[in-house]
Amino acid sequence: MYSAALTLSSLVALSILSCAEPKRVTLWTDIPEFALYGEAFNASQAKYKVEIRYFELIARKLTVTVEQPDIVVGRWLKSASTRRLFKPLGWLLENNSLDGNLFYHKLLELGIVDDEQYLLPVSFNVPAVVFARSNSALMTNHFTFSLEEAKEVGKAYNVINSGAYTRMGFSPDWDDDFLFVSATLLNADFREGSPLAWDVDALERALEYDKAWIREANDSIQAVDDFTFKYFFEPPVKLILQGRILFSYMNSSKIFTLDYDQQSNLDFRWLAEKERIPLSEDAVYYGLYQQGRRGKGAEAFTKWFFQTETQRLLLENNKKLQLNTILFGIAGGFSAMRNVTEEVFPRFYPSLLGHMPPDNFLSPPNILPQNWLEVKERVILPYMHEYIRATQEGVEETRDAPVQTLRPLADRVIDWYRRINN
Asked: Which residues pair with 251 in a beta bridge?
């Protein structure tokens, strides 16, 4: 994933506006691409000027600021600490200013609070596995790839020479995000709680599944560690194209920002289980700030942005500026407007032809706390890695993981929240 700070430095230069502009609109976001979108809006008409302000953690910023933006676009906006800060948007849909039927229905529903539409979906990403195009015949389904198929196909690809793996299809512990997605597919159900909740039994079953996968397909975690230590000085895509591994986890934003040569030699399938594809938790949403004072200008930008032709233009601008290797789609993902994703995206991303994720499979993320990314990276993922190495007695001894006691995830989450709140 590209560096937001680095990208922003080049984009913000395109959107410097005079603070004296009498009809300016302020948009706060953690999505750097909106600097470009603001510039396009300003060039499209003369009545309003939108000023873009970037904050790395927009949801957190909203909970501490006394300033009053007009529009907010970002991640984790539906958490308990932020959803109360927005105006209802149902009137835009009811008076046909926006056509609600153009959105993916399940994503639109996620923006409803107490039977009112407070947030509109902007973009989303889809989990996938990528592999060399020359290996496409090994995949039995043209659209999706299940965990069980990944295990079996990966196992069949393995090669052992002189007692050591020289080729390994896949191991679940190679990628943090894969571990999390596999748990999601197996119904771990992480969601906002007090402050965080999940299905404890389902998470344990998911992690036991990953442990069994490693044992059944790759002999042991030690064998995986030895292979990883020997070969993973190269990035996974290069190992795939060399034939050293069969596939790697990657979400859609990463796939479509690979360089042209890599994309032309790779194929992909969406990760799914029982006709369900879990969308990445960092779906982007759009809201009008409750205390915003420039309602007419905010409404004008909203109507402009959520038009098919506008989003086609934004994709065209990315192409003209040769930003396709750092920016994917709309706001870093597939557009939440179904006709844009299904009809416009394939013109800019030809490999999507015949690969479009089935609409009825798409499963939006749960509502998560605004500090979700931190607790996921610092508590949940380390716990998952430790768990898949655990035995009934403790933890398997490996080069990088000495024996230690596996503390329950609930205790770790409580401790982490206690620390950050002190």
From this structure: 127
pTM, 2 dp: 0.89
Return the ∠ at Cα 114 (arms to 110 and 118), rounded to 5°: 55
- Residues written for the chain: 422
Question: Tokens in use for 393?
Answer: 């007695």
Write the pLDDT tens digit of every residue in 105-126.
999 999 998 889 999 999 999 9
Neighbours of 91 (CB within 10 A): 12
For residues 222 and 398, is the Cβ–Cβ distance under 8 A?
Answer: yes
| Dist. CA 204–CA 387, nearest whole Å | 9
- C-alpha 222/C-alpha 136 separation (Å) is 29
CA separation for the pair 113, 119 (Å, rounded): 9
**335 DSSP 8-state letter:** E
Helix (H, G, I), strand (E, B) or coil at 165: strand
pLDDT band at 17 (very low <50, low <70, confident <90, very high): very low
CA proximity to 268, closest of 55, 125, 82: 125
DSSP character at residue 397: -
> For the chain, how far is it from start to end, CA to CA, in angstroms?
32
- DSSP state letter for 292: -
Neighbours of 66 (CB within 10 A): 5
Helix runs in 142-251, H state only = 147-157, 176-185, 200-218, 221-231, 236-242
Q: Which domains are seen in the chain, by residue range?
A: 4-125+282-357 (3.40.190.10), 127-278+366-421 (3.40.190.10)
Q: What is the pLDDT of residues 117-164, one digit of tens each?
A: 999 999 999 999 999 999 999 988 888 999 999 999 999 999 999 999
Quote the CA–CA distance of 248 and 225 in Å, as a whole number: 16
Side chain identity, residue 85: L
| For helices 147-157 and 200-218, angle between their N-to-C axes, nearest 10 degrees | 20
The tokens of 58 are what?
Answer: 């927009």
Measured over the CA atoms of residue 149, residue 150, residue 152 and residue 156, the dihedral's sign is: positive
3-state SS track over 64-125: HCCCCCCEEEECCCCCCCCHHHECCCHHHHHCCCCCHHHECHHHHHCCEECCEECCEEEEEC
pLDDT interval class at 398 (50, 70, 90): low
Distances, alpha carbon 278 to alpha carbons 182, 271, 358, in Å: 10, 8, 12
∠ at Cα 289 (286, 290), nearest 5°? 135
